[in-house]
């Protein structure tokens, strides 16, 4: 079995210790951190998602898998961020109000740091008011909003509206993403960009800073 498959399987079993050890082993074997991330950790979490949807597993198993995913991410984080030098611009990032999913958002943050951006991570379940306050305080070039639930997607629109009301909309680019989010939705709510994954989010953020 390949080491990447072993990582995926250990993650699915919620075995944080094995995920952490095998992630180190994969890096020691010379595998690219991004391949370990996508073909090991994200692949494993994808299978968990399908099983969760089909009621084959329940929230406790998903929590264990998420914990195992973090033990792998902790090892990868410094390697993914390694290329980041002096920050080229600032991003305020968070998962919107009502939404507790933060694994994807954390990946977006890591990839952005790796792309040389300074990331102010407000965490999960972040209200529109908190985003507005962070824009006032940190003066970022970009606000990045993650939502994983169809029920919390409208909160991305609420943040854009709150930025408009505060007179701050023109001062920032708003990027949105998350599994249920689409380009069409981004256009509908007046976001500046939708990106499907963490790598393209970091790439787009870099483009915004350069433009
Ligand atoms: Co939840 N959950 N969950 N969950 N969960 C999903 C999202 C779901 C699709 C599962 C399913 O039914 N198949 C479903 C949502 C259905 C929907 O609305 N469309 C769901 C549900 C229903 C729920 C609850 C309501 C379950 C319940 O309690 N009955 C509940 C809601 C809690 C809440 O938020 N209020 C809930 C709870 C949880 C846990 C707490 C147990 C746990 C989260 C732990 C954590 O995040 N710390 C959890 C998990 C782990 C999942 C799944 C299995 C995995 C999510 C994940 O981390 N994926 C998920 C199923 C799935 O997505 N396959 C599911 C790995 C991660 C790397 O991918 O987050 O998609 P993702 O991020 C990607 C891209 O989306 C993108 O980049 C990342 C990869 O490169 N991206 C961006 C993300 N943000 C971005 C922002 C950007 C750009 C790209 O720009 C700003």
Work out the count of structural domains: 2
CATH topological fold name of the largest domain? Rossmann fold
The CA-CA distance between the termini, in Å, is 45 Å
Q: In percent, how helical is the residue content?
A: 55-70%
Largest sheet: 5 strands, parallel
Integer-rounded radius of gyration: 17 Å
Order of helices and strands: HHHHEHEHEHEHEH
Provide a concise account of the structure shown.
This protein has 211 residues and is of the alpha/beta class.
Layout of helices and strands, plus pairs?
Layout: H1 3-12, H2 16-28, H3 33-53, H4 59-81, E1 90-95, H5 103-114, E2 118-121, H6 128-138, E3 142-146, H7 153-165, E4 173-177, H8 183-189, E5 193-194, H9 198-210
Parallel strand pairs: 1-2, 1-3, 3-4, 4-5
Helix pairs in contact: 1-2, 1-3, 2-4, 3-4, 4-5, 5-9, 6-7
The structure holds CO-5-methoxybenzimidazolylcobamide.
Output the keywords.
single chain; alpha/beta; Methyltransferase, Methionine Synthase (B12-binding Domains), Chain A, domain 1; Rossmann fold; 9 helices
Structure description:
By secondary structure, the chain is α/β, with parallel strands linked by helices. It has two domains: 80 residues, Methyltransferase, Methionine Synthase (B12-binding Domains), Chain A, domain 1 (Orthogonal Bundle); 121 residues, Rossmann fold, CATH 3.40.50. Helix content is 58%, strand content 10%. Strands 2-1-3-4-5 form a five-stranded parallel β-sheet, sandwiched between helices. Strand 3, helix 7 and strand 4 form a beta-alpha-beta unit. The N and C termini lie far apart (45 Å). 39% of the residues are buried. CO-5-methoxybenzimidazolylcobamide (B1M) binds next to helix 3, helix 4, helix 5, strand 3 and strand 4. The site of CO-5-methoxybenzimidazolylcobamide (B1M) has 37 residues, from helix 3, helix 4, helix 5, strand 3 and strand 4.
């Amino acid at each position: 079995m390949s080491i990447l498959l072993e990582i995926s399987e250990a993650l699915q079993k919620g075995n944080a210790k094995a995920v952490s050890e095998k992630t180190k082993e994969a890096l020691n074997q010379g595998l690219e951190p991004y391949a370990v991330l996508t073909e090991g950790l994200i692949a494993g979490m994808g299978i968990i998602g399908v099983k969760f949807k089909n009621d084959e597993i329940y929230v406790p198993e998903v929590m264990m898998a998420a914990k195992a995913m973090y033990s792998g991410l902790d090892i990868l984080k410094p390697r993914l961020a390694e290329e980041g030098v002096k920050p080229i611009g600032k991003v305020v990032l968070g998962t919107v109000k009502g939404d507790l999913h933060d694994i994807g958002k954390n990946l977006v943050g890591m990839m952005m740091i790796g792309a040389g951006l300074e990331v102010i991570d407000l965490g999960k379940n972040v209200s529109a008011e908190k985003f507005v306050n962070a824009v006032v305080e940190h003066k970022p070039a970009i606000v990045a909003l993650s939502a994983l639930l169809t029920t919390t997607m409208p909160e991305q629109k609420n943040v854009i509206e709150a930025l408009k009301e505060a007179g701050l909309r023109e001062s920032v680019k708003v990027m949105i993403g998350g599994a249920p989010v689409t380009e069409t939705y981004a256009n509908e709510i007046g976001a500046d960009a939708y990106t499907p994954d963490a790598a393209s989010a970091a790439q787009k953020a870099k483009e915004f800073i350069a433009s």
